[in-house]
Amino acid sequence: MLIRPMLAVSGELPIASQEEAWAAEFKWDGVRAVAYLLDGEVRLLSRNDREVTGAYPELRADLASDKNMVLDGEIVALDSSGAPDFGRLQSRMHVRAPDRSLVAAVPVVYHVFDVLHLEGRSTLRLPYEKRRKLLEDLRLERGRVLVPPSFPGSARVVLDVAREHGLEGIVCKRLDAPYLPGRRSELWIKVKLTLMLDVVVGGWKPGEGRRSGTIGSLLVGVPGDEGLRYVGHVGTGFTERMLHELLVRLTPLVRPGSPFTGPAPEPAHWVEPVLTGEVEYAGWTRDGVLRHPTWRGLTT
């Protein structure tokens, strides 16, 4: 039995007049995993069907059950305040057999938000609200296994709460939606909260392939007490016109050394840090680098 996760499309909140037909869940910044609890064994498979059970050994005991079931959920690392921290999770994601010190330093939890198979019976065709009721009746919460709340008819309120607590956004799910394995469907809509940042351009890396001869990515920073601090490279969000304008404006600003006070990727074309722009991003890594930055445009 192999059930691939159903995927959401990016979009906007349901219109107010239809909000009662949807439930909202918080969007957890983690790694998707399907849990197979069958014949007393626990297996975790990634979104790409990769075995990850050994990477998160602390979840096995809390997931163990005398019932046979398949669950959909998210593995999440928490910071000291209990908020999701994808940067911390990255130190666990590619370690197939972590030692005790890493498990203790970077604790994870498993957020369960759907039940796909229960005691020999598929639940995929059941509407979301019935699957949700089944999930809650299972009373799975124990230790590192959590069942985050679902809020029918309250998407706007839930999005405001997500914004207040610095979460990535929410996922809106049709109450009458079946579970569609491996499919990206408009029956699930992820509404992401957009973060913006003003940055200073300190250099660029040359492009390859279609971008050969122009800019591949911009190296950007933010001013601090000790100077310009490198915060990442931005390689998406550009139009051909933007790339041309940037190259024209940056070429006369070329300098021999890096304008950043700390380390930055080399080799690069360094420039005087006089041009500023705006980026959209998903958050910060533990090293103080932007996650998934997208260029919005110059502001000077």
Structure, explained:
The chain is of the alpha+beta class. It folds into 2 domains: 186 residues, D-amino Acid Aminotransferase, Chain A, domain 1 (2-Layer Sandwich); 104 residues, OB fold (Dihydrolipoamide Acetyltransferase, E2P). Helix content is 16%, strand content 37%. It contains 6 helices and 19 strands. Strands 3, 4, 5, 6, 7 and 8 form a 6-stranded mixed beta sheet that branches. Strands 12, 13, 14, 15, 16 and 19 form a 6-stranded antiparallel beta sheet that branches. It is elongated and about 70 Å long. 34% of the residues are buried. The model has no long low-confidence stretch (mean pLDDT 92).
What is the residue-averaged pLDDT? 92
**CATH architecture descriptor text of the largest domain:** 2-Layer Sandwich
**Structure summary, number of beta strands:** 19
CATH topology heading of the largest domain: D-amino Acid Aminotransferase, Chain A, domain 1
Catalytic activity: ATP + (deoxyribonucleotide)n-3'-hydroxyl + 5'-phospho-(deoxyribonucleotide)m = (deoxyribonucleotide)n+m + AMP + diphosphate
GO molecular function: ligase activity
EC number: 6.5.1.1
Enzyme class: ligase
